[in-house]
Amino acid sequence: MADTDGPTTGELTPPDRTLMGPGPSDVHPRVLRAMSTPLVGHLDPAFVEIMDEVQELLRYAFRTENEWTIPVSGTGSAAMEAAIGNVVEPGDTVLVPTNGYFGGRMASMARRAGGGVVEVEAPWGEPLDPDAVADALATHDPDVFGFIHAETSTGVRQPAVPELTAAAHDHDALVIADCVTSIGGVELRVDDWGIDVAYAGPQKCLSCPPGASPLTLSDEAMEKVLSREEEVRSWYLDLSLLEGYWGEERSYHHTAPVSNVYALREALRLVAEEGIEARWERHERIAGALKAGVEGMGLEMNAPDDYWLPSLNAVRVPDGVEDGEVCAELLDRYDLEIASGLGDLEGEIFRIGCMGHSARPENVIYVVTALGDVLESMGADVDPDAGVAATRRALR
After folding, report:
1. Helix (H) or strand (E) holding 145
2. What is the CA radius of gyration of the chain?
3. What CA–CA distance (Å, rounded) separates 275 from 233?
4. Which of 116, 125, 151, 121 is nearest to 135 (CA)?
5. Among 12, 160, 179, 394, which is least packed, fewest CB within 10 Å?
6. Do residues 298 and 383 touch, judged by C-beta distance below 8 A?
7. How many alpha carbons lie under 13 Å from residue 226 in its C-beta half-sphere?
8. Which residue segments constitute the domains of the chain, with CATH numbers given?
């Protein structure tokens, strides 16, 4: 007799965390409600209208007029791989940075796409130097230059982007920018800055669940994609095929993540309602209060003010404590998520996000209060009361 009893499981009850790590961030209630609306088919005329709206809203968030602006079905890494895997052809020379974890991922993807990777040297925790980039461009004359606009592993924002892109274009190189932790949170101007390809993730400053990830390409970049001599190695992420679905034809390519597109649409509507420049200003003001608080209690930021990244605050771990234990205690005691460092900065920094719906005064006061309490209980030389007072002053 067949066993008809399935596995016994309980209700789905994940903890209610306050998400102040490097992503995901807290999701706005309107976005969660959008995900629960009824499904339609991915070629339904109603969904086609939603696709059009999402593309226009993405152009607003990227500050671009690029026709080819879409959400890739997948996480931010899928958008990253779509950008690199389509633009980089076998035999291309690709110039990439060494100053963070995600520069290393860019290099790895470029190699898998058949590119020859050369690197711009810069220490972790520092931005790329425009002179060093210019020298590397002159030496290697690459086909593609990539950089990380907001490096999540170090808390560093790349300044002087137009200088980098102008130097790359002087050598006829296309520019790919990783904007995963900057879109919707810090100033980003794809067209004005001369960026040819930009990709992002929805789960950070857009405060949207992962699953549909922003990507935009200039006409010049798309021309390179469509004139490739060799097919893109990924069928699923081949933009010459996706053009049929996201372009005018709306022909079947794959089943789009309908609920994630709903969510992205609502998250982008929130961006547009707030106003993109007002949103950048909010992130800087709220993250500035967080920065004031951690410095007020006696901690140090990893990045100097000139290239501090408001959406991802890298804070030096004080002497006498272990970063993983602090993060675990914050989860256990306060249901609060922050993260440890990656790569060269593993064990040396806390990564505290201030992104999207999480970038609110009450969250910043909460994280400064909780972090100060946990650090003090572990014997670190901090002044939690001074940290909270500094945060409150900065928020006035």
Report:
1. strand 144-148
2. 22
3. 39
4. 121
5. 12
6. yes
7. 11
8. 29-273 (3.40.640.10), 276-395 (3.90.1150.10)
Helix, strand, coil percentages (3-state) for the chain, rounded to 5, are: 45, 15, 40
Unique residue bearing structure tokens 């608080």: 293
According to DSSP, the residues that pair with 156 across neighbouring strands are: 151, 308
pLDDT tens track for 172-222:
999 999 999 999 999 999 999 999 999 999 999 999 999 999 999 999 999
Question: What is Dmax (Cα atoms) for the chain?
Answer: 75
Q: Does 24 sit behind a cis peptide bond, omega within 30 degrees of 0 on the bond before it?
A: yes
Out of 141-145, 244-248, 252-256, 291-295, least confident range? 244-248
Two tokens, residue 313 = 């605050």
Residue 146 CB-density burial (10 A; 0-12 exposed, 13-18 middle, 19+ buried): buried
DSSP state for residue 24 in the 8-state scheme: P
H or E stretch at 244 = helix 239-246
